């Protein structure tokens, strides 16, 4: 008995969602320890996910660590103890069963100290029932939350998210008195201020301030410098400055942008076109609060004035809502610009022909072969495609276009971030293709010719099963022909209608069989001279650049994506370092799978001037 108790190594998993009514992790821990002790479990690991919903795996790093350790032979536990099964998952019953079964398959059992299971097949009935109850409760909470947010938004409350640049977030009690103020810093941190604006303390990441359900959050004017900066952005745009020109000006002056790139690992510090446009587009600066412009809910969205359940395929996706579903409260907070100024800027934006400051999602159809591959060594941004109209319009109204790769840092933030050093599209793409062609030709001339010929022969060798397929098709066609003859022989005025229908069906079937036989014959004809085909394929590879030009855009981009890892550009020295897939020496390949060996060969750099 003592040995069995010692062997019951266990891990504790605790989770508490953002719902204030949810069980605290402190309470869960004490109950698990109290109820697990009589069972003799020895706690070796504890993982906690604080303030995370159980409806998905997103952000549940503690559980992810447990699952990864559970899959290893060195794991320190054979049981995972939870307060109840909803701690593990509040997703659909299928997700919960899959998760528990995944652990059982490697010898780890999940134990709920408040919902003990039998350990046999009846568990597969009880777990879904409990999970459905938990999942239903989550969806009910989601709907109630959405209805509550709608009611607060109609009264001018600020519903979630960092306040826009130029505003602070204030907490107001039912009497209308401000008792706390939160300011977002450019560092990404938040500071808690007293009602008079003096410093109270720094807030930890994701820390939630304690307030009652009757309290409300509203926007209040931030620092005078930030308020004046927003007004200046609107004024500069009206004066004729574009998004990038405004961003460039602010960057040159050393003014930090909102959160200064600290909100994302991939974001770069400084003002950008998208930052400027987001300010100019936001009606919040007129003093009106508009909520529900977008939907990103897991279960419900507001539509037609109601909380409507989202289809499974849409859950979690961010989508724009119709204007009729926006919730607007006028004069909800102090304005920074008046309505006339805001509307004037909107009209100017509609009339000006400016390059889009945001990604448009057309990368798949982009004419730029190196999209996502080219990076600037000077500022670290990726290069983007850009077209320039030249000369006077033609008679049909069109203009001559020249295509370039432009540093995204300069395109978004101007010379404060990087140099204006556009690369002609044809120049850099031709140089990269030339490097690929040289790599291919060098491989063939170094002995790869014989190896590739062998691989091609093996790939194009006739399929031994083709003869069997042809024989089966011929026999079936012969049988259909015999049945057709029998029907024709049995034709009488009485059964003519029935026989005609049957004959039509059989003739269609015979036609399909003949088509299949013809296709087999064509294939065998095409494979008649494997040596000739192999030689032709090798000639195409030697003339790589010419063959590449004959491919479709999709085929070209797929090949470039396979062969090119990245292209680092030095805009000062006008050079580029292209990392091309490395072909191993033919002598090292043996008789293995060529594509597998090449795929694992890595990349090597090749430098060329621009």
Q: Please, could you describe this protein's structure?
A:
The chain has 610 residues and is α+β, with helices and mostly antiparallel strands. It has three domains: 2-141, Resolvase, N-terminal catalytic domain (Rossmann fold); 167-288 and 330-351, Hect, E3 ligase catalytic domain fold (Alpha-Beta Complex); 362-447 and 544-610, no CATH class. 42% of the residues lie in helices and 19% in strands. The protein contains 18 helices and 22 strands. It has helices at 2-6, 25-36, 61-70, 85-88, 93-105, 123-154, 224-239, 243-252, 273-281, 339-351, 408-413, 425-460, 464-489, 496-526, 530-542, 544-549, 553-563, 594-599, and strands at residues 9-16, 42-50, 79-82, 109-112, 167-172, 178-184, 190-193, 199-203, 216-221, 289-291, 294-295, 300-303, 306-309, 319-320, 327-329, 374-376, 383-390, 400-407, 423-424, 564-570, 575-581, 603-609. The strands form seven sheets. The protein has a five-stranded antiparallel β-sheet with strand order 8-7-6-5-9. It has a four-stranded parallel β-sheet with strand order 2-1-3-4, with helices on both faces. Helix 8 packs across helix 9, helix 12 runs antiparallel to helix 15 (530-542) and helix 13 (464-489) runs antiparallel to helix 14 (496-526). The radius of gyration is 34 Å and the shape is extended. The model is unreliable at 1-5, 354-362 and 589-600 (pLDDT under 50).
